[in-house]
Design goal:
Shape of chain A: globular
CATH architecture of chain B: Up-down Bundle
Bound molecules: iron/sulfur cluster
Oligomer: heterodimer
Number of helices of chain A: 22
Largest sheet of chain B: none
Structural class of chain A: mainly alpha
Helix content of chain B: over 70%
Number of domains of chain A: 2
Structural class of chain B: mainly alpha
């Protein structure tokens, strides 16, 4: 991956001077035939890739109003130029959202507009040459589809839509991305991103039940494939094995237990993530989503609850009804689907959960709004519930909570740097640099307010921060799950009182993580 | 004289037809192209009424741009409001008798020209001197500003430097509307002004000026946040569903 310098943090994220081409070397591994073909894409770059690409481009223009309108409407006002975390972290001008769009727009103009056909030099129209294709591959994999730029564009132009379309075109000519396509194929065959099979999953869940019992003395179940359960929990598979995700899963289990509901995980649909969104494929996304429908039908559940994950919640909240609905066989008295935070918050509001907030007193917390949750979904029944509900939960279970600078949270939140199918080791430099704006804001509250931990409600955010925190001189376990805090503080009926509860043995436990 | 009149008369008719055709074509295209998924930029309004308000705030106040960059907002907003006033003021050349409210707008319209000049100038200054915006600007972006500046400047010149024969101009324009063609006054500044306006009308539907209809069709701004409540399905996706499964 070569050498790169970890950016130095600053009080405010400054707009860097342009460094043309500084990230042109960054591109993810190309998918080989073994990852392309299972998805029905050509195994390698096809002979007539240019014509195929333009053909697919034309198809998409008739299928997606967003693509058409966004390619036409940009006035090059520049309002979005300083809004992308990848630009702020790298200074590469092609990471400015409008410049990223222009990589596609110039080809659009050349082939699909009057002006670009006749006066290409005037409107910057260009042919899709091999160089342009390389730029596409590189820079459309430097966009995490976080939608921050779309908030600030006067026409709502969403670069995420453009990146998705570009990736779809590239998939169709045999130039797909290994990381995403490998994972999607795994979901189609095994049911989750990790390729975790049923028996392994059962083992894991049993282990977690034991952990909770050791910790609290209460038998809390984590059921798998239980027919007739009321609730199907669909959660990112990272929740089954890695810190801090797994602590979040134990948190959900405790909430379900305390609420007295019957619930289950499905081994068939053991994945909330839907990486097909990242490659802009409606068909693939639908196929993955239909697994959830089938699992819900087979298990005969009445409700659908999603665990903590950003893009998964986008697919669930915004797309699931479209992709795999109608959900008329579920109980219509509950939101379909429902976010675990909505579930927990409802119980808190009803006063149905008891907490010992002091269990989290060894931490001072702040909350990272995940880009997809913030700008592509909602929680609760009021706009902006996606900001208020997680914070309400955090405040209900912790005594020490502070927010980061207002322009870096809520709808203006910065992506963690690893979203959009970029959470792969072959893009480490991009991920580290792209995290800079978030790290700047976090560093401020660490310095000024003594923040020790940051809460995330997204599997990608959690994995990304675990990896990049050390690069910036922090500990990997300074990122925590929201339901990990809930799990720490919740008082289960019949739980052995205080004392030495909360004793999770963690690898290289940071001092902050040991109990008081 | 007759040739001049013929050229401008034909020019205006052609430009108008072109503008209407081009815009209609685009609007129909946007209208017909489905948005397969719910992608409003959140937080978004929950219903159509809320969406109408959101769009109104974008159109009238440039809400998102205000959040984004105060300078671009200031100059851009100033230019657009001034343009609107100036255009309203021009209605007096198209109506006989002149509508009362157009008479009332008149004094503001006069100063609007200067505000347009200032807004456009500032935007061009930024385009040239702010590194990021220079990077994304192409020839057409500069030319568009030049075109608008030239229209504004020639208009102001006719009011403050070399007054044109307004009575003759008005009879020319009313003649166009009533298909009772009158001579076009042979004032070089006026000729330049009108020729540039014809050019602007001609490029409108084939340029970034499409941002005007584009805003109303932007799924990020015109969709309501109601995905859980109402199933949204594009026609092509319904076909896919019927075929597969
Ligand atoms: S803010 Fe929107 S219109 Fe302005 S340059 Fe960016 S994408 Fe184009
Ligand atoms: S969607 Fe996010 S990552 Fe992509 S260009 Fe916009 S701000 Fe950057």
């Amino acid at each position: 991956m070569g050498d790169y310098k970890v950016p130095e943090l600053s009080e405010f994220t400054e707009i860097p001077a342009l460094q043309d081409g500084s990230m042109s070397h960054s591109s993810p591994f190309v998918a080989g035939p073994e990852y392309q073909e299972p998805l029905g894409f050509p195994g390698e770059l096809v002979e007539d890739w240019h014509d195929k690409a333009i053909g697919r481009f034309g198809d998409l223009l008739t299928k997606s109003r967003a693509l058409r309108v966004y390619l036409d409407s940009c006035v090059r006002c520049g309002a979005c130029t300083d809004k992308c975390h990848y630009f702020l972290g790298t200074g590469d001008p092609k990471n400015m959202p409008v410049a990223r769009q222009d990589l596609m727009r110039k080809v659009y103009r050349r082939h699909f507009t009057f002006a670009g056909k006749w006066l290409p030099w005037l409107v910057g129209a260009e042919d899709l040459t091999e160089e342009v294709l390389d730029d596409w591959y590189s820079y459309f994999h430097q966009c995490s589809q976080c939608r921050r730029c779309s908030v600030y564009c006067p026409y709502g132009i969403d670069t995420a839509e453009i990146s998705m379309a570009a990736r779809d075109i590239m998939d169709h000519i045999g130039k797909g991305q290994k990381y995403c396509n490998e994972i999607i194929a795994k979901v189609h065959t095994v049911g989750n991103n990790l390729g975790l099979k049923g028996p392994a999953l059962a083992n894991t869940l049993e282990g977690l039940e034991e952990d909770i019992e050791d910790e609290t003395g209460v038998k809390v179940r984590l059921p798998l494939d239980e027919k007739g359960a009321d609730i199907l929990l669909v959660t990112p598979s990272a929740d089954f094995f890695a810190e801090p995700h797994v602590d979040g899963l134990m948190g959900y289990a405790k909430v379900f237990h305390q609420a007295g509901v019957s619930w289950t995980i499905s081994s068939y649909a053991s994945e909330a993530a839907n990486f097909a969104m990242f490659i802009g494929s409606y068909e693939q996304m639908r196929e993955v989503a239909l697994r959830i429908r089938k699992a819900a039908l087979d298990l005969g559940v009445k409700r659908l609850v999603f665990g903590e994950c950003g893009h998964a919640w986008r697919v669930a909240y915004s797309f699931l009804n479209t992709l795999a609905g109608p959900w008329d066989f579920l109980d219509q008295n509950y939101p379909i689907p429902q976010h675990i935070c909505e579930f927990t918050n409802d119980l808190i509001e009803q006063g149905a959960l008891k907490f010992d907030k002091s269990a989290n007193d060894h931490m001072t917390l702040t909350f990272h709004d995940s880009c997809n949750v913030a700008r592509a979904t909602r929680m609760g029944n009021k706009p902006g519930g996606q900001f208020e509900i997680p914070r309400a939960i955090a405040r209900a279970v912790c005594n020490n909570f502070v927010d980061m600078a207002p322009e870096t949270i809520r709808e203006g939140t910065y992506c963690c740097g690893g979203g959009g199918g970029l959470l792969t080791d072959d893009l480490m430099e991009l991920r580290v640099k792209g995290a800079k704006p978030r790290m700047d804001a976090l560093n401020q509250v660490v310095q000024n307010d003594g923040v020790t931990h940051m809460i995330a409600i997204c599997a990608i955010c959690k994995s990304q921060f675990s990896k990049v925190f050390p690069e910036y001189g922090m500990e990997m376990d300074q990122v925590v799950s929201l339901h990990q805090l809930v799990g720490n503080a919740i008082i289960l009926d019949g739980q052995e009182t205080d004392g030495e509860i909360n004793d999770e043995t963690e690898d290289g436990a940071a001092p902050a993580e040991t109990e008081e | 004289m007759a040739v001049l009149t013929a050229i401008f008369t034909a020019g205006f008719y052609a430009a108008t037809a072109w503008l209407v055709y081009g815009l209609a074509r685009k609007i129909v295209q946007y209208w017909r192209t489905p948005a397969p998924l719910k992608i409003p930029t959140m937080p978004a309004p929950l219903n159509t009424g809320g969406v109408a308000m959101r769009l109104a705030r974008e159109v009238v106040l440039f809400e998102s741009l205000f959040k984004s960059n105060k300078w671009i907002w200031l100059f851009g907003w100033m230019f657009h409001v001034a343009l609107l006033l100036a255009m309203l003021r021009h209605l007096r050349y198209f109506t006989e008798p002149v509508w009362t409210w157009v008479v009332l707008v008149q004094p503001f319209g006069t100063y609007a020209g200067f505000a347009m000049l200032a807004g456009l100038g500032a935007l061009w200054f930024r385009r040239i001197f702010v590194e990021r915006i220079r990077y994304i600007s192409g020839p057409s972006d500069h030319l568009m500003l030049v075109l608008l500046l030239a229209i504004t400047a020639s208009g102001l010149a006719m009011r403050y430097v070399a007054r044109t024969d307004i009575v003759a101009l008005k009879s020319f324009i009313l003649g166009l509307i009533r298909f009772d063609w009158q001579p076009m006054p042979a004032d070089p500044i006026l000729m330049a002004h009108l020729a540039l306006v014809i050019a602007l009308m001609a490029v409108f539907p084939f340029s970034k000026l499409l941002h005007a209809p584009g805003l109303f069709f932007s799924p990020g701004r015109n969709q309501a946040d109601s995905a859980r409540e109402k199933r949204h399905l594009a026609p092509w996706a319904a076909k896919l569903e019927a075929g597969g499964e």
